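Example 9 (inverse folding). The structure is encoded as follows.
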């Protein structure tokens, strides 16, 4: 059993600055033991290009749509998501004008 303080397991998102990814996109990123935990905020956003990276996460607030496999998936606060890596699961997230969404995602580093 480790004598490490419990704070070793805390992800201090409050102290991590927001980084702009693209217009309408910003992220807080925390790397821990080979995993990346991200808070992603989308505002009036459309992804600049389709994404082929896998994501597992939770919609903390707001609403977004994801174009995936020729369909539109609508996600709202309280919904989870699990999108695999690869071209077959290529996806485009969108947030409607005047709206925003906050996601918590966990990914491999």
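The amino acid assigned to each position is listed next.
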């Amino acid at each position: 059993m480790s004598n490490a303080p419990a704070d070793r397991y805390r992800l201090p998102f409050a102290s991590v600055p927001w980084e702009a990814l693209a217009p309408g996109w910003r992220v807080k990123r925390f790397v821990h033991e080979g995993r990346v935990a991200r808070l992603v905020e989308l505002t009036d956003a459309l992804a600049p290009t389709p994404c082929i990276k896998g994501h597992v996460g939770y919609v903390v607030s707001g609403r977004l749509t994801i174009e995936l496999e020729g369909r539109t998936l609508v996600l709202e606060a309280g919904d989870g998501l699990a999108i695999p890596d690869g071209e077959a699961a290529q996806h485009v997230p969108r947030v409607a004008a005047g709206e925003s969404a906050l996601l918590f995602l966990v990914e491999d580093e």
